[in-house]
């Protein structure tokens, strides 16, 4: 590890061109890119990415993968069978771009599907309540 004068932490892996990281934690997270180690596993039994399977290099990748199991899914409006569900909107958009090249990404049918907020999916914001704010003395 090399500490860079601007206060960042630079990766010392041979040939790595990543910009310096602001914290030691971010540098440590980045180091997983160069490692074969995959310390994060899907908690769903029999998933190919569960313990003993492929796993993930980064925790956020494992969390994102959880949508495969938890999301009701986005259904392609252009596929005739409508059986395959995509856990994330970007998965559906990539499918449309690759398999339905004649369709525009602004197609009303696609926009309608993408506009449907999946229940329980997405970032939840915690609201600060008045009782959680300290009273000035």
From TrEMBL:
It comes from the Eukaryota. This is C2H2-type domain-containing protein. SMART domains: ZnF_C2H2 (SM00355). PANTHER family: C2H2 FINGER DOMAIN TRANSCRIPTION FACTOR (EUROFUNG)-RELATED, ZINC FINGER PROTEIN. It comes from Cercospora zeae-maydis SCOH1-5. Residues 114-137 are annotated as: Disordered. GO terms for biological process: regulation of transcription by RNA polymerase II. Gene3D superfamilies: Classic Zinc Finger. InterPro entries: Zinc_finger_trans_reg (IPR051061), Znf_C2H2_sf (IPR036236), Znf_C2H2_type (IPR013087). One of its GO terms (cellular component) is nucleus. Residues 9-34, 40-69, 74-99 form the C2H2-type domain.
């Amino acid at each position: 590890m090399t500490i860079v004068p601007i206060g960042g932490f630079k990766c010392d892996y041979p040939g790595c061109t990543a910009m310096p990281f602001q914290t030691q934690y971010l540098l440590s997270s980045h180091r997983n890119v160069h490692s074969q180690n995959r310390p994060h596993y899907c908690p769903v039994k029999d998933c190919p990415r569960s313990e003993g399977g492929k796993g993930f290099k980064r925790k956020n990748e494992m969390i994102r993968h959880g949508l495969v199991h938890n999301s009701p899914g986005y259904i392609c409006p252009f596929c005739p069978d409508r059986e395959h569900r995509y856990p994330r909107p970007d998965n559906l958009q990539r499918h449309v771009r690759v398999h339905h090249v004649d369709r525009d990404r602004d197609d009303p049918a696609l926009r309608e599907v993408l506009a449907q907020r999946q229940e329980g999916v997405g970032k939840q914001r915690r609201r600060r309540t008045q009782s959680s704010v300290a009273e000035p003395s």
